[in-house]
Amino acid sequence: MKNLILISVTWLLGGAGGLYAQDTVEADELRVTLKSIRPKLIPGAKSLHPDVVFLTRDGRKVLDDNGALSLEKSCGACHDTQYIEKHNYHAQVGLSEASIEAAGPQEHAQVGDFVMLRGFDPLIYRRLSRSTDEKLDLGKAAWIQLLGPRHVGGGPAFRAQNGKMLEDLKVGAEVSPETHVLEPKTKTPRPWDYQKSGGVELNCLLCHMQNPDNRERIDALEQGRFRWASTATLVRSGIVARTEAGFTWNRKMFDARGAVTNQVLKLSDPPSDNCRLCHAKACRCSDPVVFENSLQNWSAETTGTIFSPEPMRKSGMNLSGKPSLNSAWDVHAERLLGCIDCHHAPNNPAYNQKDAGEDMQDHLRFDARRLGIEAYLRRPDHNLVKGFVTQTVVARAYDGTMRGCRDCHRPEAVHEFLPFKKTHFEKLSCQTCHIPKIFAPARSSTDWTLLDADGQPLVAHRGVSGEINDPLSIIDGYQPVLLWHVDDQDVCRLGPHNLVTSWFWSQGDQESPIRYIDLYNALFEQDGGYHPQVIAGFDANSDGRIGLDELRLDTDEKINLMKKRLETQGVEQPTVRALMHPYTIAHGVLSADMAVKSCDECHRPAARIGKMYDLARYAPAGVMPRLLQGSDCEMAGTVLTDQDGALKYKPDLGIEKLYVHGAVRLGWTDLLGLIVLLATGLGVLLHGGLRGFTTRMRKSRGGGS
Amino acid sequence: MRSMLVWSKILLAISTYWVLVVSQARGKTQSEPDAPWSRVEKRADLTNHTRLFEGMRFSDGPSVTRACLTCHPEAATQVMKTSHWNWLGEPQTLPGRSEPVRIGKRNLMNNFCISIESNWPKCTVCHAGYGWQDERFDFANQELVDCLVCHDRSGTYAKTLAGIPEKDIDLMLVAKSVGPPTRDNCGWCHFNGGGGDAVKHGDLDGSLAKPVERIDIHMGRLDFQCTQCHRTREHRISGKMISVNTSDSNQIGCTDCHSRSPHRIERINRHAGALACQSCHVPEVAKFQATKVAWDWSTAGRDTQQNDPHRYLKAKGSFLYVKKLIPKYMWFNGRVDRYLKGDRINPDEVVHINLPMGRIEEPDAKIWPFKVHRAKQPYDVENAYLLVPKTWGAGGYWTDFDWNQAAELGSEASGLPFSGKMGFVETDMVWKLTHMVAPARDALRCVDCHAGSGRMDWLSLGYDGDPALVGGRKHRRQLLRNQ
Amino acid sequence: MSAKVLFYSLYERIWHWIQAVSVVVLLASGFAITFVDGLIPLGFETSVHLHHVVGIVLVVNAALALFYNVTGGVLQRYIPALEEIFPLGFKHAGYYLFGIFKGEAHPFDKTPDKRLLPLQKVTYFIVLNLLLPLMMVTGLLKLGVDVVPGWVALSGGLKVLGPLHRLGAWLFAAFLILHVYMTTTGTTIWSNLAAMITGYEHSKTCDQEDRGA
């Protein structure tokens, strides 16, 4: 089709029929690929990492006095661990980012993703209390206990705001989130003993060791043994054993120097399975993919994307139409890519090739001066390169540092079927067509205005018929909504998203939510049962219990009751707020044969573009959510309720952004045109009728005379 | 003026045609279309034979053959030229040898039941003839050709020792049923290679009689008969196994019907430079029935061990069977280094009875999937060659459990002297895997071989590592050239 | 007295009918593109393809016609003189409003040189110099959005070209109806249509000289 247009236009403009324009393809055959030196561990082969002497923070060997392992000291013998901790947004989670420090409450409420430090995330709800907060909610130690399991250590888990180590903190008289935690029973702050607990060091092993013991690490964190978290990561390897008292090093695993061989440790660049410990629990490459939607399975829960090479057909899930789902969950995973192949260290010399881009002078093709492997290994920048996703708020400076689709692929060279390639590529991100459907369920809404009997919010998922995580529920998957966003080329394009709506109580005109403990105490009694007033207000069928279907904040009585209950907890002017977080979908890319190819997918009214998108069963307290802007790109759309009260999102397909043939309706143009057309038709009919009539009249008169 | 306008119109017409037709056709001519059906052998028609034998009586096999030959006078002479009759191939010069020889089941050794010499009647159950009792069998007697084993369509025909039909078979019923061979006819022998279902080949077993497409896409989904790929002219059936042949002539290939670059993804098409189609499309064999992968003759003869046809038999020794066998991948250029009777061995090393030839450096060699069968089998310690023991029949090992006696008797029949000192040596034998082609969706995927999954042993294949990372052999050749 | 005169040369007739078919196909396929599920079930992909091809045909046809008319020196046929708007145009309009119903004779006679009636001349002038170029330019720009993105951006992009092209299409459809109807106002209902097919028409003031061929 493209040829056709080119030929036509050339013919017309140039006046010659034979000219055949072709895409100019840059001649880059000369670019040398360095994949032959790319490090990759062959299973069974010995990795190059030398044996490691395990040291404590004092610099003594752990065996000497059975001390806690300090990776900063042990790994620091060769690597610049302090540099690594500082250049590491996984550790810092925004600690060193001024923008987050300075952001006002509204911006805090806007952030999606796992802004562990300060932001409001509808999935997690709780955040580290700020010193400016009126009431203490999560002190630093409680934050480590609650959210540390998904944090790699270091950063705020190791250092206080002033840069001092947590274990050196002096407890002052003043209540501070840094030093105090909230006693849940009495709702009073108490100081935390950091001397005893220590801080959580950046845990190198969690990412770099094959098969780390995350379970033991989490246990240590939850029990408040922060200092021992790194040590606990080694339990499964047998280097250390967990005992009643704590941990005991297994001397047999150490040699005379007090070193552990790398055959036991198996240190390497991070295997994808290690990334999955926090990002997506589901995907184990070797087994059939079986996943549960939960916060532990973060990427599946927020977007429904599963990064696995397994064909969906072979998964252990109850997918609808499964026998025909030959595509892998993610085509890049299928084609051998692991997490770090795209999300590499920015100064990794294997990827950071200075032979292209703006830095290169015109007359040069290759710059031989580059970071040596030794210098890189001493100071590897751990701010892993990443793309643009709306849900991320930490390390925004690193947005778009990874190779985007077009940095590896040349879409112009293929897509022969597609007319107006450039126009399509200009307006649509690659994911729009290449992630046409998400095959796993994802969170659709989180209602924090009420809590279920377990104290959990009321959550709903899209893409599943029936209960989530019930093996009998059929997983239909869902079609993502297309929103404008800045994509990996730093261009505003339409791309696939999941919209997660959330409702929560806030105090007065504050944008951020009330403390969880206040909400909990408003709803529940000390013994864990619902408060009698709550039961009276919500028990619609009067069976003395509140079922899940009765937990609806849909009448004024119920809203007022909740307000009253919250006021007893010291919340002033409780107000329900609602937000809609867009989660950009970047993984789960399907093989090309499953990509959108038919024009009809978009070029018809209310097709893929402009389609109504289900948000939630109803709007709690009648509050309509507003879409959070994830970027400078404008996302136009309106939230509606249908006749059943269900909440829908309707993208506003203004022609300003996108004139889609077949999909746009132009009210006034079409109306005007239609009027002119009808008027002409009517005029012609009238005139013709009159002509016929008068002619006949004349004829009859003429005939009579 | 006028002619100019006419020319303009002609130009307009041509441009319209160009835009409409030519531009659309461009860009669609590059990839080779995969249209296998145009090259698939049509199935032969079935002629109704039910009324053709009136007034005849069939007392034995040869009497049926005589009747066949009245209408098909050429048939017996055709069959008698084939290896199905002769159990010997055409004269060929084997790798590393100077004299051309004729080899075949008649004179080769394997590491299953070892040799037919001295064991004829038991082995020749599967001979397409009647009465091969010993070395004196008359290969020129047309009446001894067994037409029925291949052409029976009644499903009642069965042969016993020396290829004689079983006693109570209604030969008239069988004769009336005859037609072109089906999978059942071929399978009667070939599914049961090694003496039982699935024992020898791994990619040929009874599950192919009525296969589902998961087992074999051609025979399952498309109901192919053997002869649709193994094209047959004048009873000469194409295709051979490397267990009894050493050359790559008269082979059948996927590309007989399929395009050489049939994949939508160019990267996969490029794999075909180094890989046989089968390497990805036969991801596993013995899908329903376990196949034998190891046989230790040295443990035979024990009365203490329990007999179990898949683990141990007193007559035969210990076995190992594997279901869903993952192939072993080796370079193969189509030629085989074949052990012949009397070849010297080094008893300290594994004896390769039919080693596939080919190395990574050979451009024509490709990686093929193989079934490997390992064995420990008797050899002559003094003479350092593999022995031909008599196993079946009077005095055979399976009767008397006496190795020396079996070796003596075998030596008499084979003409291979026995020194009196016998030992057991490890041997291996391979079978190229080419049946049980999986549906495309079950073919191997990137991660099955690359990214350290372990199906391919890259280093022993001669690569420097996973070629996805270090480059393929073409890259390697280029590097060598540059140096 | 009236005579049968060659009004339209072969080329002019071919040109006219190519133009006519193109416009109808363009209107239909354009409608099918805009209203995918509408009255004309051509399918989006087919319609787009058809629209492009026939659009090019129309443009080329128009270009050749321009060339023909310029080199043939007959351009003035299409340029209305002032008097043709007033008073002749009014006289002409008066005929359609009143005279035609009274069975009056047509106030103007057509000759091969003066083949267009005053109002017809004005209408064609607008259609051929405004509407058709508008459709061709917006259409070509839309078609060339990948090839000459700079020009497209200069014109305001698809969000301007789209509605313009669409409005023009409505007007073209209206013109088409009017045009077809007006052909019935000749000597007889079919005489104008027949003339555009055969080339010959009766003319009162013309002798039987075969002109224009």
Question: Your description of this structure?
Answer:
The complex is a heterotrimer of chains A (705), B (483) and C (213). Chain A is α+β, with helices and mostly antiparallel strands. Chain A contains 25 helices and 17 strands. In chain A, strands 7, 8, 11, 12, 13 and 15 form a six-stranded mixed β-sheet that branches. By secondary structure, chain B is of the alpha+beta class. In chain B, the strands form four sheets. In chain B, strands 5, 6, 7, 8, 10, 12, 13 and 14 form an eight-stranded mixed β-sheet that branches. In chain B, strands 1-2 form a two-stranded antiparallel sheet. In chain B, strands 3-4 form a two-stranded antiparallel sheet. The model of chain B is unreliable at 25-30 (pLDDT under 50). Helices cover 64% and strands 4% of the residues of chain C. The longest helix of chain C is centred in the first third of the chain and has 28 residues, at 44-71. Classes of the chains: A alpha+beta (705), B alpha+beta (483), C mainly alpha (213). Chains A and C meet through helix 1, helix 20 and helix 25 of A and helix 2, helix 4 and helix 7 of C.
